[in-house]
Amino acid sequence: MKKAVKDFLLVKNTQLNHDNFRLDLRSEEPLPEILPGQFVNVEIKKSTEIFLRRPFSVLDIDYKTNTISLLVKILGRGSKVLTTYKAGDKVSMIYPLGKSFTEPEKDDKVLLIGGGSGVAPMLFLAKICGLKPEQVHVLLGARSKADHVDVSEYLPFGQYYFTTEDGSLGEKGFVTHHPVFKEKLGEFDKVYTCGPDAMMKSIAGKAKDSNVFCEVSLENMMACGFGVCLCCVEKTKGKGNVCICTEGPVFNIKELKWQV
Ligand code: FES
Questions:
Q1: pLDDT tens figures, 142-157
Q2: Which atom of ligand 1 is nearest to the CA of 222?
């Protein structure tokens, strides 16, 4: 798909919790189809010290208003500066980048597992995968209740489960401790996940043992976003070292050289 570099107008910046913000960015032109797992690379112009663009997964798209919504979690200086942008600011983005998750079959029962900023593509996938809500199970993990973002807008699209490390919401522990994962993994046709590496590796290991289809969206460091700087390389079985920004960020776990 052809990439574009365009200025978007920030129409709304909503603080969701202490370190997560939703940015709604409007284009003057119609948007191409953008699918869950794909990302945009955002220029942070307001800081003279930040030269590299920052990648963000897409949380939602509204084709009627040509709006892309991003979930921006403060992870460093770049994301922090971006969260200070105000409605009316211009934001340059390169889009759409990367490859999306495999579309589920119409009778699939799927488990979507998100942690950290990896929640964004899971919510987007739940919303547009085209399955009935009873086929879509979404498991979200965070440190505490305060670290979870409000997902009420996405509740109509699936069954939701939560974990927290301190037990303040849902099951206490990591996502892999939740019964829907621990005891029911084999009931799912497909597992999709995005979040911290350790979380995804643990999920991938169990999915492999249970022989369940599993795709992960990697969050390796990125700069250019389109295969030039080589800072996002990942080892794969079939293709050797690949740039995840062009060959991924979504991979089937069978393609990766993870020790799972
Ligand atoms: S981010 Fe530059 S090659 Fe992937």
A1: 999 999 999 999 999 9
A2: 1
